[in-house]
Amino acid sequence: MIGTRIGAALAAAWLLAAAPAGAVEEDPAWAQVRLGTQGPAQVIGTYSNGCIAGAVQLPPEGPGYQIIRLSRNRNWGHPTLVATLEDLGRRAQAAGLPPLLIADMGQPRGGPITDHAAHENGLDADIWLRLDLPLLAREQRETLKPDYITGAWTDYIPRGALSPQQAQLIRLAATEPRVERIFIHPAIKRELCAMSWNDRSWLNRVRPWTGHNEHIHIRIGCPSGSPECREQDPAPPGDGCGSDLMSWFPMLAPVPRKGGKPYVPPPLPAACTAVLQAP
To answer: How does DSSP assign 146-157, residue by residue?
Structure first.
């Protein structure tokens, strides 16, 4: 699933009681660092409990994409992630899509980040499903609002709410060779499953997860040269349109929090201390 900070049993209960995106508390020490470290890129730990040395920035705009909310300084990632997003932008442009709105990737050195349960080791990126804007000035991108396809806890999508262009974007992202996962709201995944596709193999990479009701969450695998990167479990075989998808829908209604101690993530890998403290 999304990370290794929580076990499978805890994940189900935590998903129901927490914010839809599964956000954890940001560590200010990581958020305040404005630049990455020098040297080659090294991914450390997991997507939800890790960091990155040698991260690079995705340029604010390029062929087929534009970054939103640049002031957040979250357009950092492994060079392979940056190349993947640039390639996806070019493919989207060639397919006639408007510029993609790329939101949060990661912080300059990764680490805990608000609004997310992952995005910690330079291998994740969010792309809004909004596809109605031309290339905008950078200041105009600071206050954009997303288009919500469905509510965070909703299992129903009105007819036509997921446009053919949005479905095409998800397919283009899922067929990027370096992409291992795309997380999307279960109801949107169900809509994709109901559509007619000549090749359905890419649907295996599209996995259901609540909170992803106005964006897709792209994830690449551990790159070569990062021995301390921890891989996620492989996705189950098949297109993911059967019982594993349908099992999400009884879980979509939120339940009241019943008290108890808040979830506290385990310590980051020891190597992340050196990453944070590096000049």
So the answer is: PPPSS-TT----
Using CA atoms, how far apart are residues 50 and 28, in angstroms rounded to an integer? 15
Q: pLDDT tens, 158-188?
A: 888 999 999 999 999 999 999 999 999 999 9
Are the C-beta atoms of residues 132 and 98 closer than 8 Å to each other? yes
Q: Angle at the Cα of 193 (from 178 to 217), degrees rounded to 5?
A: 40
Asked if 10 and 48 count as a contact pair (C-beta separation under 8 A), the reply is no
126 Cβ contact partners less than 8 Å away, ≥ 6 residues apart: 102, 103, 104, 105, 119, 215, 216, 217, 218
Q: What is the pLDDT of residues 58-74, one digit of tens each?
A: 999 999 999 999 999 99
Q: How far apart are CA 160 and CA 164, in angstroms?
A: 9
Which CB contacts under 8 angstroms, 24+ apart, belong to 255-264? Answer: 255/16, 255/17, 256/17, 257/17, 258/17, 263/6, 263/10, 263/14, 263/18, 263/24
Q: Do residues 59 and 43 make contact, with C-beta atoms less than 8 angstroms apart? A: no
pTM for this entry: 0.89
Write out the E strands in the chain: 42-46, 49-53, 56-57, 61-62, 65-67, 76-77, 100-102, 124-128, 179-184, 206-208, 215-220
Inter-CA distances, 214 with 100, 145, 249, Å: 13, 10, 18
Handedness of CA 156, 159, 162, 167 (dihedral sign): positive
Q: Measured in Å, how far apart are the chain's first and last C-alpha atoms?
A: 34
CA dihedral 250, 162, 65, 51 (to 10 degrees): 0
Tell me the CA distances in angstroms from 163 to 15, 147, 156, 159, 207, one per residue in order. Answer: 28, 12, 15, 9, 19
